[in-house]
Write a structure and sequence with these properties.
Blueprint (H helix, E strand, L loop, with lengths): L6 E4 L11 E5 L4 E5 L7 E5 L6 E4 L4 E8 L8 E5 L2 E4 L5 H23 L7 H5 L3 H12 L5
Parallel strand pairs: 1-2
Antiparallel strand pairs: 2-3, 3-4, 5-6, 6-7, 7-8
This protein binds zinc ion.
InterPro entries: DUF6527
Pfam families: BubE
Length: about 150
Amino acid sequence: MTASHLRPQFVELIPAQLAEGVLYISTQYKTAVHLCPCGCGNRSVTPISPAQWALKWDGAEVSLWPSVGNWGFPCKSHYVIRDGRVHWASRWTEAQIERGAQRDRADRQSYYRAVRRPAEPDASGWRRHLPGFLRTAARAIRSHPDDS
Ligand SMILES: [Zn+2]
């Protein structure tokens, strides 16, 4: 069955059997897992980190950003979860999926390079190339150089 709403459930470990319409969130493992809302039964895993997904919980509903693209499943579902609601997005073509994957890899590589070398004297160079949310993360890391 298609799910149009996902309610959050905070867990320590992701259960083996998942219910439809639930977004399981393990703060310990910084991961969220849910059954694909198209009803295909595949589980979509979204690691929560500055280089992957950002999760927002307002006390009742959750939002995940960026969109979830289940390119590895036959359904190839693509959607945004905002305030618990599933907003369906267009399916991507194979070329778009490949470009998106390349961009994700590049973003992750620059993020991890940035994190490994937070005290570079000319850090402005790499920060210019990072997307906005990573720049914020980079600033946060640089302003707390002792918190490692
Ligand atoms: Zn699906």
